[in-house]
Amino acid sequence: MNKRQGTILVVDDNKSILAAVEILLQNVFAKIITISNPNRINRILSDEQVDIILLDMNFGAGINSGNEGLFWLAEIKKQKPSIQVILFTAYADIELAVRGIKEGAADFVVKPWENDKLLESLQSAYRAAKNKKSAGQPAQSVTFSSGKNDMFWGKSEAMQKVRLLIGKVSKTDANILITGENGTGKEMAAREIHRLSSRNKNKMVTVDMGAITETLFESELFGHVKGAFTDAQTDRIGKIEEADDSTLFLDEIGNLSYHLQAKLLTVLQQRYIVRVGSNRHIPVNIRLLSATNKNLDELVKKDLFREDLMYRINTIRIHIPPLRERPDDIVPFAEIFLDKQAKNYNKDNLRFTTAAKDKLKAQPWYGNIRELEHFIEKAVIFCENETIDADDLDIPAVSSGVKENEATTIEEMEHHMIRNSINKHNGNLSLVASELGISRQTLYNKIKRYEL
Length: 452
Hints:
By secondary structure, the chain is an alpha/beta fold. It is 42% helix and 15% strand. It has helices spanning 15-25, 41-47, 67-79, 94-102, 115-134, 157-169, 186-196, 217-222, 239-242, 258-270, 296-301, 307-313, 330-344, 354-361, 368-382, 410-424, 429-436, 440-450; strands at 7-11, 31-35, 52-56, 84-90, 107-111, 176-179, 205-208, 223-224, 236-237, 246-251, 272-274, 281-283, 286-292, 316-319, 351-352, 387-388. Helix 1 links the parallel strand 1 (7-11) and strand 2 (31-35). The radius of gyration is 25 Å and the shape is globular.
């Protein structure tokens, strides 16, 4: 919203909050209506063209159940289903706010609020309302972050809890470990944490730990000076130094060998690096995010992962649930990918039938969001009509070649996915890496690990 536009209704029994919000929004919305009594909502909706409602969840003195907010949310949706409603909630109301999302709210903002977060939520809701109106469809309660890499949260209760946790910890400098299966969106979560952090003016630096060979580890992470080894023609800044005053994201940290873990731990403890071939200490100020699809607790028990390093990277742990545990998000994700791929292949009018949506939702998607996106792209390529029906979705009986009762761990599922992809592409590892969404080096490491 580059200029004032749209009408917002703010409903809160605290007049000080109404005044503060009105001042904050006066340069954003063309019209701001504030009321302290929710009983006036229905009349205002009859008299005004309201785009967004910022709705408190508690009104009666001494009542903190949040049920009033849910009641008025339902009333608003009955009268004006297309209106975007954002819940204004205290920390104690979070469970109810998540329930509100499931019942049609577009978002929730926690009191005491952060101005940037509140403005972002309201502007995102306004854009969603306008987009749906222009398409002649009711607005849906999906929320995106702004920026190049949009984070889709969906409507599932599990992901709303993840979203709340990320919102709380992003502003800190705490080290965060992000866990979850392949393809669940761990890197997207890391980028969202960085985007919301105070370090977001600098680029987040990403390192795929599974793709770094042991011989290049120190040069890649710590850098080197000219003449440090045969091919060192110039000085080179390492990834850790590059991330100074920013965020360092170490992906697949569970693949790091035991003795290299000690070198990483030293840097995290001492907060300085020494380039290869140099004796000079270079201080670094980084915020560390790490991700893994492995069970690090089990690796610690087996002496395959250092317990002291585990403590360093694991101040906060965020688990991204697999797609099959949040089936309500499958179709929204599929529709996002359909829109994206339809534009890529000049098939802008494509849509799913109800039967196709039901079929998508019934699949376990062991490869998670990454598998779903590749599948939707394939469906778009082969579709010759304006609708994709259930019969057009050539989904194997069990996703990714994993048979029921055959694979019982994430590692076994991954083993099957890689083996089946290698067979499918007749050993062309470039195609295999592309299909699985990983680098060739990561693929080589996994092939060696699984002895494929």
